[in-house]
TrEMBL record:
Record EC number: 6.3.5.7
Matches recorded under PANTHER family: GLUTAMYL-TRNA(GLN) AMIDOTRANSFERASE SUBUNIT A, MITOCHONDRIAL, TRANSAMIDASE
Subcellular location: Mitochondrion
Record-given protein name: Glutamyl-tRNA(Gln) amidotransferase subunit A, mitochondrial
Keywords per UniProt: ATP-binding, Ligase, Mitochondrion, Nucleotide-binding, Protein biosynthesis
Pfam family, one: Amidase
Coiled coil, from the record: none
Species assigned in the record: Aspergillus cavernicola
InterPro entries in UniProt: Amidase, Amidase_CS, Amidase_dom, AS_sf, GatA
Family (UniProt): Belongs to the amidase family. GatA subfamily.
Highest taxon of the lineage: Eukaryota
HAMAP family reported in the protein's UniProt record: GatA
Assembly with partners or alone: Subunit of the heterotrimeric GatCAB amidotransferase (AdT) complex, composed of A, B and C subunits.
High-level lineage: Eukaryota, Fungi, Dikarya, Ascomycota, Pezizomycotina
């Protein structure tokens, strides 16, 4: 198929799947600009002069990633009139490789949510496996990007992953979602939620496509202070990998609440790896039980600081009100009115939570304690992996002891259960609370706190993969030591490519 025919099919699917609400700003169907770009890419391919494997491909971008030619709203009233004067680095890198922006995808406001229901533009609906599924959660916060990939509205998509926001939607929609090691992909031009956790992630139907995108984006960016310089990257790359692999099974992920379909998919994944000659080894990550609580202190604290600038004076849409004392109390203060009307309920909840945990009275008991837990979570991972962490090598004796008996990767579920119905989350008689939504991240948060690479791939819980319905397919997560991104992708490709 020519690239032009493929691109036209993607754009036609954007029009036919409007009810799923995957895009905030779709690609204009009758625009000649993207058609000319694809025609030029087709010509380069015919001449054997492709810029990259992504030349002429349509890539969608989560709407918290700045694009010069399309608005960046973060799904919020606060930024509904904002258009960036520049492209984010990851956008520019892909455009330089010949990729074409396929539109901006829907999300939870400012990336704060696990089901893509907290959006100024309405919830994203899943189309997973087609069984009455437009009522199912697409996962969050990168649900729009996930649905766009799952329904062939683009070739691949970028999202952001702070505590699981790429991997959870991938698990819920039956696609591949990859969170690279923290600091490998540039965050310059990505609207911040929690700086120490935010990572640009990649979503596609095939792990090989994710690898192609990662290969283009995995570069140092001097404009991003969290981007690893070449000196650090040289320590990360070209590490020797053992064969066969030692596969770690974390005991703490085998919770009683694990859905039977998820447990079956997990078992099939481990059994397949065992049949391929790899060793299965039980490991313990004791601080996993505290990771979720620590995350929901640290991330809101950073969000409270980051979102303070949206005051209607310096940044954000202004909602008019008094700027000082006056007689007309009904007008409201400018700052309070701007933030009160500009932010949605979930963003307000997290700002308040973060502001409290950073207060002088609470910081020692909450924020400081959460930072200590984060350090212990990272230490748990370092202790079970055979490869030493290249950023903290030779720091602790226990890390050296672990080299003799450690594992190469961990395999565990991405989410403890199949996607819930949107009605369970949003209706007046909703059966799931905000706390239930937070618990969806229980398996993805630990890798985020430690900054480790992790990928979610779809695995069926049944032998006959052609007869499954929605609940037969689960996301299985592969977690690697810091910098072992290629190994994580290799294992993901192995699981996905063998009928699982």
């Amino acid at each position: 198929m020519s690239l032009l025919l493929e691109a036209e099919r993607y754009v036609a699917n954007q029009s036919s799947h409007l009810a799923l609400n995957a895009f905030i700003t779709p690609l204009p169907r009758r625009s000649s600009r993207w058609q000319d770009q694809v025609k030029h890419a087709d010509l380069r391919r015919a001449q054997g002069k492709q810029k990259s494997r992504l030349d002429g491909r349509l890539i969608a971008f989560k709407d918290n990633i700045c694009t010069r030619d399309l608005p960046t709203t973060c799904a919020s009233k606060t930024l509904e009139t904002f258009t960036s004067p520049f492209n984010a680095t990851v956008v520019q890198q892909l455009e330089d490789a010949g990729a074409i922006v396929a539109g901006k995808t829907n999300l939870d406001e400012f990336g704060m949510g696990s089901h893509s229901i907290h959006s100024r533009f309405g919830p994203v609906k899943s189309a997973h496996c087609g069984r009455d599924s437009d009522n199912l959660s697409a996962g969050g916060s990168s649900g729009g990007s996930a649905v766009a990939v799952a329904t062939d509205q683009c070739y691949a998509a970028l999202g952001t992953d702070t505590g699981g926001s790429v991997r959870l939607p991938a698990a819920y929609t039956g696609i591949v979602g990859f969170k690279p090691s923290y600091g490998l992909l540039s965050r310059w031009g990505v609207v911040a939620y929690a700086n120490s956790l935010d990572t640009v992630g990649i979503m596609a139907k095939e792990t090989s496509t994710v690898r192609d995108v990662f290969g283009i984006l995995n570069q140092y960016d001097s404009r991003d202070p969290t981007s690893h310089p070449p000196s650090s990257r040289s320590r990360i790359s070209h590490r020797l990998k053992s064969t066969p692999l030692r596969i770690g099974v974390p005991l703490e992920y085998n919770i009683s609440e694990l859905a039977p379909s998820v447990r079956r998919s997990w078992y099939r994944s481990l059994e397949y790896m065992r049949q391929q000659g790899h060793t299965i080894q039980l490991v313990s990550l004791p601080m996993t039980k505290s990771a979720l609580s620590a995350y929901y202190i640290l991330a809101p604290a950073e969000a409270s600081s980051n979102l303070a600038k949206y005051d209607g004076v310096r940044y954000g849409t202004r909602f008019e009100g008094r700027d000082g004392d006056g007689d007309n109390k009904s007008e409201g203060y400018l700052y309070a009115k701007t933030r009160g009307e500009g932010f949605g309920s979930e963003v307000k909840r997290r700002i308040m939570l973060g502001a409290f945990s950073l207060s002088a009275q609470a910081i020692d008991n909450y924020f400081i304690q959460a930072q200590r837990i984060r350090r212990l979570v990272r230490h748990d991972f370092d202790a079970v992996f055979r490869a030493e962490n290249p950023l903290t090598a030779h720091a602790l004796d226990i890390e050296h002891q672990a080299r003799e008996v450690g594992v190469d990767v961990l395999i565990c579920p991405t989410a403890p259960s199949p996607p819930p119905r949107i009605s369970e989350l949003t209706n007046a008689n909703a059966t799931k609370s905000s706390l239930d939504a937070y618990v969806s991240d229980v398996f993805t948060v630990p890798a985020s706190l430690a900054g480790l690479p992790a990928i979610s791939v779809p695995v069926s819980g049944r032998e006959n993969v052609y007869s499954h319905d929605d609940e037969d397919l689960a996301g299985i997560q592969i977690i690697g030591q810091y910098g072992d991104d290629d190994l994580v992708l290799n294992v993901g490709e192995l699981l996905q490519g063998n009928g699982l």
